[in-house]
Amino acid sequence: MGLFDSKVELEVSAEPTALSPGDEVRVRSELRGPDKKTRSARVRLVYVNSYRYEEADYDANGVRQTHTRNEEIVVAEEPLSAPGGHGGPAAGLSETVLHVPSDAPPSVEDAVEWMVKATIDRKAARDVNEEVPLTVASAPDAHAGWAEGSGTHPSEARMDIELDRRVLRPGERVIGSVAVTANEDLEGRALRARLRGRRSDQDGEGVTYDGPVQDLAEPAALSAGATQSFAFALNVPIDARASFQTANNRLNWYVEVFLDRRMRSNPTGCLEIVVHRPA
């Protein structure tokens, strides 16, 4: 190492790394070799929210461009150590406790990534950053109100969906029935029930996650004014993303019943459920 070289190092660990909203995470850090360029050292509890958005730029075909942005949200921050003799943080071990907010969104693949992030801020030199990945579960009552609303119906028919429960975990089964009353004679390749997740982003389109599908009638013929009832059971995929909401996007899950028609729109009835991923 040369006369003017410096070796500033930071080692960070966190415990536990699997958390629920309201929990605390204990952060242990060791700062080695701080020098005159070391202005501060801090540890933060953050999540990175990934979302899609449209910009007013166009490709060669005149289509508006959609991009993905990663926004870092800081929910807690503490200094890593007391000031040292050079005015910056002192070398040595330190422990910090950070709290996960009670309304924290859960970890969601491609959307919400949690971590402890420690940073040494150095003047006119490269900062030192260390990260510890975390997993945050859904709060037990997160978005329970989403599962209390009534269903929606297409203009072509009334589709009254009943479920044995509307808050589920990945791997669990929802058992239901639907009473279909057509407003006009309808025919289709099949009447089907399915689980579907819809992530709404700033681009106005978002992402769709398709779950299992069950045929209720194949082919399907619905007579105007007549009510037909069908039973179904659908398993929530074991890797289903949790229902969530941030300032930039949200994910809603639905049980949908739809008439699959060739070369025409599919009349669809929906009833919202909540997918909860516990610790």
> What fold name stands as the CATH topology of the largest domain?
Immunoglobulin-like
Spatial gap, N to C terminus = 47 Å
State the CATH architecture of the largest domain.
Sandwich
Biggest sheet: strands, sense, closure?
6 strands, mixed
In angstroms, what is the radius of gyration?
Answer: 26 Å
- Report the strand count: 19
Average of pLDDT: 90
Number of contiguous helices: 0
Report strand %: over 45%
Query: How many domains, in number, for the residues?
Result: 2
Task: Give the CATH level 1 class of the largest domain.
Answer: Mainly Beta
Shape field: elongated
SSE ordering = EEEEEEEEEEEEEEEEEEE
Q: Would you identify the regions where 5 or more consecutive residues have pLDDT less than 50?
A: 1-5
Helix content: under 10%
Oligomerization: single chain
- The chain-level structural class is mainly beta
Task: Explain what you see.
The chain is an all-beta fold and about 280 residues long. It folds into two domains: about 10-135, Immunoglobulin-like; about 145-275, Immunoglobulin-like. The chain has strands spanning about 10-15, 20, 25-30, 40-60, 65-80, 90-100, 110-120, 130-135, 155-165, 165-170, 175-180, 185-190, 190-200, 205-215, 220, 225-235, 245, 250-260, 270-275. The strands form five sheets. Strands 10, 13, 14, 17, 18 and 19 form a six-stranded mixed beta sheet that branches. The protein has a five-stranded mixed beta sheet with strand order 2-8-7-4-5, with no helix packed on it. It has a three-stranded antiparallel beta sheet with strand order 1-3-6, with no helix packed on it. The protein is elongated, with a radius of gyration of 26 Å.
